[in-house]
Design brief:
Blueprint: H1 2-18, E1 37-45, E2 53-64, E3 69-78, E4 81-93, E5 98-105, E6 112-119, E7 122-127, E8 135-141, E9 146-155, E10 158-169
Antiparallel strand pairs: 1-2, 1-10, 2-3, 3-4, 4-5, 5-6, 6-7, 7-8, 8-9, 9-10
Length: about 170
């Protein structure tokens, strides 16, 4: 009897959910539609105290959750091995009127949370403090198939560039 009751409740819930209108992504998600696709470039790492390093980088961005999220997977290689990788999920936060990104990366035990807004054609994301640091990422389209990326760390009231890449979109 309990199984029959549980089955009836599950069926009722499934039916109720099927009657809801489909969830639509926020219109602001169209502002980042140009990021979709596969991208590659040479990432120039300029970490303090280390010689500059260049690594091939690959990015794949796709819609997730019916377009409510953009899911991005990226890698950087040293030789034939992946030296760094991450996955991020970006969506629009209507209450804050900003893009919100959760990023999970190599070596980080917690996600980095960033809040983004457009400044002209640049999408600028500033992180909440993570690992004692605040970071800023800037994305700027310089053509339909070219995207400039820069990551900086905050040092007092200054920003220090630690990496840059010009990505080309895969045809």
């Amino acid at each position: 009897m309990k199984r029959l009751l549980a089955f009836a409740v599950a069926c009722s819930a499934a039916y109720a959910l099927s009657q809801l209108p489909p969830f639509q992504p926020a219109p602001e998600m169209k502002l980042i539609a140009g990021f979709l696709g596969e991208w590659s470039g040479d990432f120039k790492l300029t970490a303090p105290g280390a010689p500059p390093t260049t690594m091939p980088a690959h990015v794949k961005e796709e819609l997730y959750g019916g377009g409510v999220w953009h899911k991005t997977y990226y890698t950087m290689k040293a030789g034939n091995q992946v030296a760094f990788e991450g996955t991020s999920f970006m969506t629009w936060d209507a209450a804050k009127k900003k893009f919100k990104t959760y990023t999970f990366e190599t070596g980080a035990s917690e996600p980095r949370i960033e809040w983004g807004t457009f400044d002209g054609k640049k999408l600028i994301n500033i992180s909440e403090p993570h690992g004692g640091m605040v970071s800023r990422t800037t994305f700027e389209f310089v053509g339909a198939d070219t995207l400039k990326f820069k990551i900086e760390f905050q040092d007092g009231d200054q920003w220090m560039t630690v990496g840059e890449c010009t990505f080309k979109k895969k045809a």
